[in-house]
Input
Amino acid sequence: MDLTGREIVLGVTGGIAAYKSAEIVSRLRHLGANVHVIMTKNATEFVSPLTFQTLSANQVVTDTFAAPEYWNVEHVALAKLAEVFVIAPATANILAKMANGIADDMLSTTVLATKAPILTAPAMNTGMWTAEATEQNVKTLKERGVLMIGPESGILACGDEGAGRMSEPEAIVEEICRILKRKQDFAGKKLLVTAGATRERLDPVRFITNDSSGKMGFAIAEAARDRGAEVTVIRGSVTAEIPAGIRMIPVESAQDLYDAMMKEAPGQDIIIQAAAVSDYRPAEQKDKKIKKVNGGNLMLELTENPDVAKAIGEKKKPGQILVGFAAETDNVEKNAQSKLKKKNLDMIVANDVTKPGAGFNVDTNIAALITADGIVEQPLQTKRQLAEKILDKILEIRNRI
Ligand code: CTP
Output
């Protein structure tokens, strides 16, 4: 990838892996990037600033002689300049400072001020990496959207074996390229995704639900986040890992989903309904556990739930794009076409959940993207790849409106 003219700030903290960061600078320079290095005082004990200065061909910022006034100018300038802010190696100390907003030296001050994507490459002793305090800090940072690569497992400088080694410079540079390459074609757009399964309560300990894991909805939310959208997810019950940096509204039943959607939908540009919504709920919800009656059958009476997608379709705002999903087991395209019309959708993503590699609880999917214009078949691919295709198609529809 050609990085000519791209501005990258690299923070180097005090770990033995600091010497490896010299290779990150030289690889980035080789690709044409302009690299600005900030070293903590401890980092300068491991590697001389002159190394980074020579490799980056830029003045290295250190705290050694920096007066606070100097920080004020420099930290704002570099924070604004950065297109990606990388910290490699990132010690337990810098992660702790970042998680808590501590700004007591040049690097922590600058990283606090930046709006650029932040990529950290942690490196530390296994005991420090697995310490509860570090785990908490890492969780906090990830929730705020701070990106992390590694650490890898192996023999560490201290002789211990386990997780804590900084990722290889080559992998870090690849990750930087990936971040810089990200399309920002959803910037300024508000996008709502529904994900997961609804739960319809029978009594305090039982409910009716389905196999939806939330994976497809989350893959769309992550892809849209990475392409610059302001994303909200309304999620039912999920088994997939909840993605970081995304506003989440948890709901339980189809009625809860309906209520949340009525509130959130009007302000959205794009709504993608990947949740598997129960069409029926128990007619009666007992507030005490239903007891067994020996010898007889138990009859359950179910009553119809609101069709959320249909209701949203009826209230569709001008210019709003509505996308639905259809999980089918037979007559996939015909059923999906009729749902497209019935629910006033712009697109329906239809999948045959009986095919291996498609449907619930797997990382892949096979689908057909159905619009008023026709059908585009999507062969077996990861849910993230399919998510990108769905977003591409949404932009096509938008350009036509
Ligand atoms: N959907 C919804 N509310 C419901 C049922 C479904 O909003 N009560 C939405 C789903 O989120 C999905 C789309 O409608 O985006 C299609 O869901 P699906 O279950 O396939 O369609 P149904 O209309 O329920 O038809 P059927 O179950 O008969 O196939």
Notes: The chain has a mean pLDDT of 92.
